[in-house]
Amino acid sequence: MSSPLTSARLRARLALFRLWRLFGSFKLSVVLTVLLALYHGLLAIWARSSPAPVVQSIAGLLPFWLVYGLLLANTAVCLWRRLPALVRGAGPLGTLMFHGSFLVIALGFAATFVARREAGIRVAVGEAFTGDVEQWVAGDRGAPVGGTAPRFVVEEIVPELWDDALLFTELRARIGLVNAGKRDVRINEPAWLGLCTLLRLTGFGYAPRYELSDAASGKVLESAFVKLSVFPPGQEDSFSASTLPFEVDVGVLPDAVQRDQGWETASLNLRRPAVIARVFRGKLPLAAGTLLEGEGLSFEGVTLRFPEIRYWAELSLLYDPGAAILFSGYAMALVGLLLRVRAGGREARE
Amino acid sequence: MSHGPWLSLSAALCAGVGALTIVGWWSQWDGWRRLARVGGVLGVAAAAALWVARFVEVGHLPLFGTFEAGLSLALCVLGVAAVLELSFPDGVGGMPVALMTAAAVLIHAGRYSRATWALTISERSVWAELHGIAAWLAFGLFASSFAYAVRVLVRADGGADARWLPRLLHWGFVLQSTMMALGSFYKFLLFGRTWSFDPIESLAVVAWASYATIIHLRYFAGWRGEKLAAWAVLGFLLLVLSYKGVLYFPSWSTYHILDVDLRLHIPG
C-alpha cells in the first residue's frame, strides 16, 4: 500500500504527463490555429469601424496573448517530443526549421515590444543636426537608444510630385554623416546606421527665412529659418519673432500666380514661392500681405521679408533590436518550408 | 490604349470555354480535355496580351490597383493551370474551373478604374514588386488547388490523382508565407514597423492559418480525397476574401488600397 505522500506525487506526475501530452498534441495545434484565424477575422471586422489604435489595443487583450502563448508552448513541446525524428533527412529538418522559426519570430516581436524606441528630428537643408533640443520633434527629445545620436548635415532634399497632384513620386534627402560618408534616404529606403538602428525619412516641409529690419535704416534686427507645417498649400502655421513682440501666421504658395480672384499656386513645386503673412501683436492684427521673394511688409517701424525658402526634412531615428531577429525567423521559416515541400514532392513521386 | 473591349472579350473567352468544358466534363464527353487545353492556351495568350499591353502603357509591372492586380491574377491563375495541364500527360484536370476563376477575376478587375497613375514613392521598390509577384503566384497555385478540389468533389475521383491537391496546397502555402514575410519586411522599411494589425494583415493571417490547418489535418489526421477537397475550397474562398475584401474597407482603415481614385475619394 502506497503512502499518501507517494500517491500525491503520483497524481501530480500524472497530471504533468497529461498536460505534456495535451501540449504536444496536434489536435491542440489545430484548435489554436483555427482560433488564430477567428481572432484575426474579428480584428479585420473591427478595423472597418475603428481606427488603428483601437484595433491595436484589442489585439493586445488577454485572449490574444493566451492564444499566442499557447501556440508557442504547443510548438515547443511538439518540437521537443519529435526532436529525434526531426533531424533525419531534409524533410524533417524543414519541419523543425519552419516550426522552430515561430519561437524566433516570437522572440523578435518580444524584443520589439520591450526595446523599440523612435524619435523624430526636423532639420532644414544645409543645417547640421547636433542633437540640440530644438531639433527633436516635441515629445521625442533625446536619442532613442539612450546613447549618442548620429551627427549629420542634410545636404539636399528632392521632392517630386506627379502632374502637380498630391502624389509623391520621389522624396529623397541626401545626408552627410559625420565620419560615415553620404547617404540617400527615401521614405521606403532608410539609412541603416547599425544592425538595430536606422534613420528614416518621414516627411518634409518648407522652412522660410524671415528677416525683420528697421524700416528707416534697413538694418536687420532679427533673421532666422522657421520650420513650418505649411505643406500642402492651404495649410497655415505660425511663428513668433524671438526678440520682437510679433507673431506671424504663414501660408506658402510654392508657385505663386496672381489671378483676378487673387493669389493662387500654379503647381506644388517650389518655383516662384510667395508667403502669405498676417502679423499680430498679441491679438491685434498689424499687417497682412502676400510677399514674393524680396518684397516687404511694413508695420510699427519694422519691415518683414522672406528672402529665401528651403525644404526641411522630418527624419526618424529608430532603434528596434527585434526586427533583425524577426527577419531571421522569416528566413528560417521559408528555408524550412522549401526543404519540407521539396522532400514532400520527392516522397510523393516515390 | 482602351482595355475595355479586350478585357470583356478575354473574360468572355475564358467563361465560354470554361463553361463548355465543364459541361463536357460533367457529361463525360471524351473531347473535354482537349478543349480545355486549347481554351487554356487561348486564355493564357489573351491574359498575357492584356498584361503586356498594360505593362507597356504604364511602364511598370501591372501590380498596383485592382485593375492591374486583376490582370496579373488572371494571368497567374491561367498560367499555373496551363503549366500543370501541359506538363503532365494525365494532367491535373483543373483547367475548366481555372478558366471560370480567371473570367471572374477579369470581370471584377473591369469594374475598377483603368486610369494610369504614376507610382507613388511607397510603390517604387523591388521589395514591393517581389511581394506582389509572390502574392499573385500564391493565388495562382491556390486557384489551381481550388480547381482540382472542385473536380474531386464533383466527380468524386480524388483517389486517382490524390497527390496533386497536397502538392498544390504546399507550394501555395510556401508562396503565401513568402508574400507575408516580404510584406512585413517592406512595411518595416516604409513605416518602421513590421506589423500593425491593418485589415490586409489580419485577413492574410486568416487565409494563412486556414491553409496551415488544412495541411496539418492532411498530415496528422490523414485527410484526403473529398474531405481535403472540401476544405481546400473553403480555404480558397477565404483567400479570395483576404485578397479582395480589403477593397470594401474605408480607405482610412488600411494602407493597402492601391487604387488612387479610391484612396483619394475621386468620384468615378
Summarize the structure.
Chain A folds into 3 domains: 4-116 and 328-349, no CATH class; 117-205 and 315-321, no CATH class; 207-309, no CATH class.
What does this structure look like?
By secondary structure, chain A is α+β, with helices and mostly antiparallel strands. Chain A folds into 3 domains: 4-116 and 328-349, no CATH class; 117-205 and 315-321, no CATH class; 207-309, no CATH class. Helices cover 37% and strands 34% of the residues of chain A. Chain A has helices at residues 4-23, 26-47, 52-59, 62-81, 83-86, 90-115, 321-349, and strands at residues 117-124, 128-129, 152-161, 168-177, 181-186, 191-192, 197-214, 220-225, 237-240, 247-253, 256-259, 262-265, 274-281, 284-292, 296-299, 302-319. In chain A, the strands form 4 sheets. In chain A, strands 1, 6, 7, 8, 15 and 16 form a 6-stranded antiparallel beta sheet that branches. In chain A, strand 13 and strand 14 (284-292) form a beta hairpin. In chain A, helix 2 (26-47) runs antiparallel to helix 3 (52-59), helix 2 (26-47) packs antiparallel against helix 4 and helix 4 (62-81) packs antiparallel against helix 6. The two termini of chain A are 56 Å apart. The model of chain A is unreliable at 346-350 (pLDDT under 50). Chain B has 268 residues and is mainly alpha-helical. Chain B starts with a helix and ends in a 5-residue tail after the last helix. Chains A and B meet through helix 2, helix 3, helix 6, strand 4 and helix 7 of A and helix 6 and helix 7 of B.
Rg measurement of chain B, Å = 18 Å
Most extensive chain contact? A-B, 55 and 54 residues
Extract low-pLDDT stretches of chain A. Answer: 346-350
Supply the helix-strand structural class of chain B: mainly alpha
Instruction: Give the proportion of residues in helices of chain A.
Output: 25-40%
Write down how many β-strands of chain A occur, each being a DSSP E stretch of 2 or more residues: 16
Write the layout of secondary structure elements.
The complex is a heterodimer of chains A (350) and B (268).
Chain A: H1 4-23, H2 26-47, H3 52-59, H4 62-81, H5 83-86, H6 90-115, E1 117-124, E2 128-129, E3 152-161, E4 168-177, E5 181-186, E6 191-192, E7 197-214, E8 220-225, E9 237-240, E10 247-253, E11 256-259, E12 262-265, E13 274-281, E14 284-292, E15 296-299, E16 302-319, H7 321-349
Helix pairs in contact in A: 2-3, 2-4, 4-6, 6-7
Chain B: H1 4-26, H2 32-58, H3 66-87, H4 95-110, H5 126-155, H6 164-191, H7 199-220, H8 225-244, H9 260-263
Helix pairs in contact in B: 1-2, 1-4, 2-3, 3-4, 3-5, 4-5, 5-6, 5-8, 6-7, 7-8
